[in-house]
């Protein structure tokens, strides 16, 4: 009779442990149709398409073709008229001020065309006027660089630079932590934006070394802006840097893969930005079903739950390291 009561107690303990599993690890239900929010990575894709890169490339202009712009310091020399000559800074309205004449628009003119306009403006007041214009400081030739660089801010140039030149002038790309990886940068030009793969650029892909224009903005995001999270029953859970076209298996592999206690039938890929949760069966990927090895986006979470058996074992061990041996020993005695 005592053996029956003891065995009944053991069974009750097991049932309590099973009921505790749900509280120990709560797994959210998959979102219906979640696969529509994901796509399979295309390894042939670039950060930006080739056509977009070509659109950003500009032909390097000669100094003679330079167009004057707001903020430039120019030296106006009117031959034989020192009172009309001297330094002028082009105002934010694109104009300069001349004695007798008043303001003259010179924005977006070549030096030769600006001299011609000044001659025309002075001609009603002076005979045999001849003017030359020389650029002393190219203050309008500025590019702004922000983000993960040592010297963010405005950089001036005399001739149109390329992307590598500007990155070098910005003083390199310091890392706050050794595990950081800077993978990309953006070139913002007006209402257009071009994403460049820094890894490919810095390893010799000269097609990505695009020429820049005045007023371009270069943005290098911190690697923490490109993170994915792999949690649960994996060998190395944590935060990982997103690389271009990273897939589900890439991220899972960086975390060391699932542990032996993982539930291989119910892996979860959660995309908070789209409010979706896709359940993935590992056997389907290994089949293989390529449409399940989807591309990973910034902020995605991969969650690998423990299997039911491993959860019970974990709880038993937390209660008492010897509880497993005692429980099965008692069951053996009861039988």
Overall description:
The chain is an alpha+beta fold. The protein has four domains: 1-25 and 321-335, no CATH class; 28-39 and 226-317, Outer membrane lipoprotein wza domain like (Outer membrane lipoprotein wza fold like, Roll); 50-60 and 142-222, Outer membrane lipoprotein wza fold like (Roll); 67-137, wza like fold (2-Layer Sandwich), CATH 3.30.1950. It is 27% helix and 22% strand. The chain is built from nine helices and 15 strands. The chain has a five-stranded mixed β-sheet with strand order 7-6-10-8-9. Strands 12-11-15-13-14 form a five-stranded mixed β-sheet. It is rod-shaped. The chain starts with a helix and ends with a helix. The model is unreliable at 18-23 and 321-335 (pLDDT under 50).
What gap, in angstroms, lies between the N and C termini? 12 Å
Point out poorly predicted stretches: 18-23, 321-335
Oligomer classification: single chain
Q: Supply the CATH class of the largest domain.
A: Alpha Beta
What is the fold-level CATH name, i.e. the topology of the largest domain? Outer membrane lipoprotein wza fold like
Estimate the mean pLDDT confidence.
77
| CATH architectural type of the largest domain | Roll
Secondary structure class reads alpha+beta
Q: Please report the number of helical segments.
A: 9
Number of strand elements? 15
Query: Rounded to an integer, what's the Rg over CA atoms?
Result: 34 Å
The arrangement of helices and strands along the chain is HHEEEEHEEEHEEHEEEHEEHEHH
Q: Major sheet: order of its strands?
A: 7-6-10-8-9
When the domains are counted, the total is 4
Query: What level of helicity do the residues show?
Result: 25-40%
Estimated share of beta-strand residues: 15-25%
CATH superfamily of the largest domain: Outer membrane lipoprotein wza domain like
């Amino acid at each position: 009779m005592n053996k029956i009561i003891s065995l009944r107690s053991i069974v009750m303990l097991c049932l309590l442990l099973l009921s505790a599993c749900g509280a120990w690890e709560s797994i959210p239900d998959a979102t219906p149709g979640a696969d529509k929010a994901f796509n399979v990575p295309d390894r042939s894709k670039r950060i930006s398409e080739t056509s977009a890169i070509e659109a950003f490339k500009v032909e390097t202009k000669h100094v003679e073709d330079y167009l004057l712009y707001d903020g430039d310091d120019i030296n106006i020399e009117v031959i034989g008229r020192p009172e009309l000559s001297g330094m002028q800074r082009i105002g934010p309205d694109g104009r300069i001020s001349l004695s007798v004449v008043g303001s003259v628009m010179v924005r977006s003119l070549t030096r030769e065309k600006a001299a011609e306009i000044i001659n025309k403006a002075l001609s009603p007041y002076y005979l045999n006027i001849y003017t030359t214009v020389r650029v002393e400081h190219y203050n309008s030739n500025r590019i702004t660089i922000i983000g993960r660089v040592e010297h963010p801010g405005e950089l001036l140039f005399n001739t149109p630079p390329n992307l590598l030149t500007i990155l070098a002038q910005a003083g390199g790309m310091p890392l706050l932590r050794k595990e950081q990886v800077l993978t990309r940068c953006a070139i913002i030009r007006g209402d257009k934006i071009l994403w460049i793969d820094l890894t490919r650029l810095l390893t010799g892909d000269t097609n990505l070394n695009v020429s820049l224009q005045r007023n371009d903005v270069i943005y290098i995001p911190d690697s923490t802006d490109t993170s994915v999270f792999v949690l649960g029953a994996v060998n190395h859970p944590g935060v990982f840097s997103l690389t271009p076209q990273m897939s589900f298996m890439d991220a899972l592999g960086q975390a060391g893969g699932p542990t032996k206690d993982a539930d291989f039938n119910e892996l979860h890929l959660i995309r908070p930005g789209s409010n979706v949760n896709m359940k993935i069966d590992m056997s389907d990927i290994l089949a293989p079903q390529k449409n399940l090895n989807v591309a990973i986006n910034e902020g995605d979470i991969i969650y690998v739950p423990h299997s039911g058996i491993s959860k019970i074992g974990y709880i038993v061990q937390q209660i008492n390291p010897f509880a497993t041996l005692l429980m099965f020993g008692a069951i053996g005695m009861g039988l």
